[in-house]
Amino acid sequence: MTNCLEECITNHDSCRANVNVELPTRVVNVGDSSVTKSRLYEPPSGAKDQYLALSYCWGKGATILTTSTTLESHIEGLDPERIPRTIADAITVTRRLGFRYLWVDALCILQGDGKAERADWEKESARMDQYYGNSHLLLSAMDGYHCDDGMLHARTATVYYNPGDADHSEKRLNVSSLTFWPWEERYSDRPPITSRGWTLQEHLLPPRMIAFTRTSTIWECNEVKANDHYSRDPQPQEKCRESYWNSLQHDDPQLPLIWNDIVIEFCRRGLTNPHDKLSAISGLAGRYQKVCGAKYFAGSWDKTLITDLLWARKYEGSSTPMHTYEHYFPAGFYRAPTWPWASMEGHIKYPEDLLEQDHKASILSCSVDLANPEDSFGRIFGGNIVVRGHVVSIRLNYDQDSRAYRLYLSLHYDTMSAFAFATLDWDIKFEDWYGSDENRDKHRLCILLVQYYGLVIEPVEGGKTNVYRRVGRFELSEEDVWYRHARIETVTIV
What we know:
Number of strands: 25
Number of domains: 2
Number of helices: 15
Strand order of the largest sheet: 3-2-6-5-7-10-11-12-13
Low-confidence stretches: 157-188, 230-243
């Protein structure tokens, strides 16, 4: 892997060297092999050097965290007995590769719910693009479920014969390879680290990565992918991918699909703190903005707002929602308005023909209320979007045979077939929708956004006129029914 690093730094034009960059607010000074204690280091403002970063799964009950209470003691020295095995292994690798500084989130950002901790977290989480993007190299503990699982393991290798060998006494020892590209679907067993939301940007932002599994060590950079084959003859390095970010162009018509792919993969992953939904992808949003040049609104972009709204929940193992909103979130919880994917918990999807759809509505305005005015990609505490388009009042019915939600025009519910199919964002209780005259007459609408897709919305209780919340996405099946009965309205979705 040292050879891969030297080759990358020396000869790869599309891989940033990152040899003289501004250090983060805090880094772990690992010293050298003669040092028994690593320590937390706060470099002077503007100090430059090179550093490595660690990507790993925390697991429950992390054994060492930096807080306002432990900060001074961690600066004096980190107790080796309390350092989780994965972080200890990362310190070892950093030393062996000849580097002094390592960035580890649990140690370099203050953790906890205190005022000082929250302020530090807000400031530092807004710099994820910078911290991971400027790292010289990422170390990734792919197989660990917990920070004590470690990343340096004794290998159990797979032995097999070379095909076509006449003399089978010559064996080639080969270590299983893991090709890691986050949203490829070719692997039935995804490594534990790919279940964590934060690690998507941790893997995509740095220019190069060494990933450690129980059976292999993998190198990946913008130009080359390689793993440690144990054989008599060195194996050629596998060509990995062209420079991902450098290949993106702001005028590429396929660019919105790249962001959608990122979002789809991100939504497959989990977060310990549900409030982190936007923060955990903020670094990628910042990097993407440098390419697209658009304004960011809670996971969506002003240049593509119409199509960005057309996400839908993807139900794994069932065609119906599994839980209500209240199942996931406590009363009073707020993370995002209902219209962006950031409000959703679970897998999502977009229409396959998204870019081929003619727009049928217009966005009049969009705004979000930032929790931190200095971080346009982080947490928010409010937001709305104003849309003008064709709407119809609807009734919803669940078809047991097709296991699908069908939409009917309210005025012709008893005499007309369904004109659309809906994918609801959350499970609903039909008695809440239709169990009383008040609910039955509630002014629920469909608003068409593109040629065949739009949103299902319902009035916000106690809200102003024409203020709605999103409850799902629909796909039009009967165009003529729609256009005969639709009317143009302006609605605000919160």
